[in-house]
Write a sequence for this structure.
């Protein structure tokens, strides 16, 4: 096996499009000694897209594009096994892949449970790193949703120590609400105001990520949420925000960030707009 001792091994899911694609570009052209592994659903298509965007790679950097599908556990495990056999460890995991349009169960299966499956597969490789970072790319919609739900619902979500069984019950409650098309009883107007099941899936993702951060903190590496807002900012700006979260210290684990600013997990629309204006 070639030595990658002095390289930074970075895996980016969804690396063939959107913010993840821009993050791949920045790492390959502006950083040094980076091994960037883009996990994508269509390898050949993504290779062409990346090559068009990044015609030349900075000296000392490497790019690999591999198959990766958040909806396919075997695909996730195969990708993790490849990283282990090729590089021996992982320094940064950026979980960016997600879907926005489908039914509640499909969106949750990808955005939450697919992400959790990927984390489970790659965390043993992160544990072999001297400076590991796990970044869950979420959305400002997550904080806006939590800020809009009724108090009795908010207290169930706004915590760092939720158990697996408690989280599973919250998901089942949400599925029941979706089946009845009654979101207001438990979630007020959060579903209606903030992009439906997609926005709500990000609220659930934040709860999961907060609990995960506390679980892995004693092992000495950092897990952060990275949120972005899709206003006048460019995709490149969003990608730079993602990458800045891969450099935060262990003391900042379990926090959400947007363009270098810490974002509360629950905000009103006015509070969110004020924060974004400062970024």
């Amino acid at each position: 096996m070639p030595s990658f001792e002095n390289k930074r091994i970075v895996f980016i899911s969804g690396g063939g499009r959107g913010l993840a694609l821009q993050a791949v570009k920045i790492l390959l052209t502006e950083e040094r000694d980076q091994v960037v592994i883009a996990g994508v659903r269509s390898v050949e298509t993504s290779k062409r897209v990346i090559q068009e965007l990044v015609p030349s790679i900075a000296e000392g950097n490497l790019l690999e594009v591999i198959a990766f599908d958040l909806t396919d556990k075997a695909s996730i495990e195969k990708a993790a096994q490849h990283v282990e056999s090729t590089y021996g460890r992982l320094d940064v995991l950026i979980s960016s892949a997600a879907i926005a349009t489908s039914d509640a169960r499909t969106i949750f299966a990808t955005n939450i449970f697919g992400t959790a499956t990927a984390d489970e597969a790659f965390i043993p490789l992160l544990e072999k790193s001297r400076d590991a970072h796990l970044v869950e790319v979420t959305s400002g919609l997550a904080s806006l949703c939590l800020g809009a739900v009724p108090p009795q619902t908010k207290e169930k979500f706004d915590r760092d120590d939720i158990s697996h069984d408690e989280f599973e019950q919250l998901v089942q409650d949400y599925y029941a609400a979706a089946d009845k098309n009654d979101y207001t009883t438990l979630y007020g107007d959060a579903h209606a105001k903030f992009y439906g099941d997609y926005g709500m899936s990000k609220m659930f993702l934040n709860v999961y990520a907060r609990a995960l951060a506390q679980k892995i903190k004693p092992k000495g590496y950092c897990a952060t949420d990275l949120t972005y807002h899709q206003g006048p900012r460019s995709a490149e700006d969003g990608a730079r925000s993602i990458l800045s979260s891969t450099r935060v210290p262990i003391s900042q684990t379990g926090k959400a960030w947007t363009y270098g600013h810490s974002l509360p997990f629950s905000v009103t629309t006015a509070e969110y707009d004020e924060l974004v204006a400062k970024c």
